[in-house]
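worker-3 :: picked Platelet-derived growth factor (PDGF) family profile domain-containing protein
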Amino acid sequence: MMHLLKETTGCNKPYESLVQLPVPEGYDYVKPSVVKLKRCAGLSCDFRHDQCLPDEDYITLKTYTVFAFKGSERECVQVSVKEHGVCKCKCDRECPDYQVLDLWACKCVCDAKMRQLCNARYDDGEPVMWSEDVCSCECNSVPDCDHGMLWDDRACR
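worker-3 :: tokens ->
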């Protein structure tokens, strides 16, 4: 039973599913509204925290002629949707500039080297601390500056 479940939900090949057709701008709805296409959605991966996604090299654009309705008016139009040919498990995530991608966990994390540099500055007596929220070295305190003076966040003075 487990083998059959793995075969039907594993990320090895796309399976046929109902896909909503896009409604062109200026129209209320289209008929037919759905088509059967092969998709990778809903399939699972065994390894790490990857997602089952289509291989970009094997995506086909399918074009359908449908009736598009605007109020009581009907017109023939063409709409296109993507069909997946091959699925693969991968981590598909983009991280902000201040984070790096941990491929094993498939999540964005603070750069360990930046944390080490901050800790070294703290060990050298600089009034800094590591902020996990913004993945950066921050000053322990920010006092008010005298008139005409500017605070330097890098030097904490």
